[in-house]
Design brief:
The two termini are 59 Å apart. Strands 3-4-5-10-7-6 form a six-stranded antiparallel β-barrel. A four-stranded antiparallel sheet has the order 2-11-13-12. A four-stranded antiparallel sheet has the order 18-19-20-21. β15 and β16 form a beta hairpin. The N terminus is likely disordered. The protein is built from seven helices and 23 strands. The protein has three domains: 136 residues, no CATH class; 69 residues, Alpha-Beta Plaits (2-Layer Sandwich); 120 residues, no CATH class. With 376 residues, it is an alpha+beta fold.
Length: 376
């Protein structure tokens, strides 16, 4: 009898463990992590935009006047700063990003932003501009027609503006002139895997999954895993990385609620739970109570009941939500208690998003939210 009781308790424990882990998700390794040498590099440069219809920099922007004079000198035209008087030119900062392992001749998008008092870059053309990396070396050049997506017109003191006309892009206007080649193997001869969201549980799961492929892997900390692979040639390393990135890994995600007070936005994961809670906000009273019961199938025969179905022991939350205010009668709701349910019910009662944000902040301080509240 003791042996049978012990076996049933073992099955019950395993079923509870399965239920506890049923909310976890699997994701491809390439979607949640990157290779240590796989990174982009930012580029920046200073240039001139020409062809503006009187909406460029004024003479108050001395740097623009001098830049125009220096540019003309490159074409054999010697002019002084005082001889330059045009509002068809604007000084701009040009930025872009060169991708990992970009080769010479690849094209990239670049962003153009006015530096002086130009009113609009609509219709302008970016002159040839070298783009440098953090090391001061040129990696690309940019040139082309600017796409702004807005406008600004002024006449007799009247102004008509749409969007932001002093910032634009040059689609595929950057040409890579120097390759961005990084090493995939670090100084210790290992491949580093960097997690997008650091988590100790996910890092351990990644290391275990990689070990199952036959490679030696270990988690260095919550955000990095190192792998030792045969390094007979570069092809061996690339093949190993391709196999590793294609792994499906069990992720242990954090329960987060993102709240933006400025815009009144609330974003929550579906697994963020709310424990027993009573809220009084103005004339509103909200009470949430959760009790957990165990659903045990009848006549268990090692995983099956007499009906032929699978017999599983599960924990069933029984939640009661009570709402009371001056104009609302008592209401009862049953089901799993999540932030989504809480916010939905508060919405039905006519509360604004900002009122709900205040309630969520108070609930977090009271320890009723089983997750992390992030304020932006």
């Amino acid at each position: 009898m003791k042996v049978i009781f012990f076996s049933l308790m073992t099955v019950f424990t395993l079923l509870l463990s399965f239920y506890a882990n049923s909310s976890t998700n699997y994701a491809r390794l390439k979607d949640i992590a990157r290779i240590e040498g796989d990174r982009d590099n930012a580029l920046i440069g200073y240039g001139l935009v020409v062809g503006l219809a009187g909406s460029g920099d004024s003479r108050r922007s001395k740097s623009t006047i001098r830049s125009v004079a220096n540019t003309l000198k490159q074409f054999g035209l010697i002019v002084s700063d005082n001889e330059v008087n045009s509002r068809n030119v604007a000084a701009v900062m040009v930025t872009g990003t060169i991708g990992t392992f970009a080769e010479r001749g690849d094209k990239i998008d670049v962003s153009v932003s006015a530096m002086g008092d130009a009113r609009s870059l609509v219709g302008g053309t970016l002159l040839l501009t070298p783009l440098e990396g953090i090391d001061g070396r040129p990696y690309a050049v940019a040139q082309g027609q600017i796409s702004v997506g807005g406008y600004k017109f002024e006449q007799f003191g009247n102004t008509e503006q749409k969007n932001h006309p002093t910032v634009g892009i040059v689609p595929k206007g950057g040409m890579v002139e120097r390759g961005n080649t990084n090493s995939l193997v670090n100084e210790d001869g290992k491949i580093g895997i960097i997690l997008s969201d650091a988590d100790f549980g996910t890092a351990i799961n990644i290391a275990d999954s990689i070990n199952s492929l036959g490679y030696k892997s270990e988690a260095v900390h919550s955000g990095k895993v190192v792998v030792t692979v045969p390094n007979y040639s570069s092809t061996d390393v690339i093949r190993a990385i391709a196999r590793i990135q294609d792994l499906n890994v069990l992720t242990d995600e954090k329960a987060l609620i993102i709240v933006n007070e400025r815009t009144g936005t609330i974003v929550s994961g579906g697994d963020v739970k709310v424990s027993s809670l009573t809220v009084a906000h103005g004339n509103l009273e909200l009470s949430i109570k959760t009790q957990y019961g165990v659903s045990q199938p009848q006549n268990i025969v090692i995983g099956k009941n007499n009906d032929g179905g699978n017999g599983e022991t599960v924990v069933v939350p029984d939640t009661t939500i009570k709402v009371k205010d001056d104009n609302t009668s008592l209401a009862n709701f049953k089901g799993e208690t999540t932030v989504f349910v809480l916010v939905s019910e508060l919405r039905k009662l006519g509360l604004s998003t900002r009122d709900i944000i205040v309630i969520l902040q108070a609930a977090d301080k009271a320890g009723a939210i089983n997750g992390e509240l992030v304020l932006q």
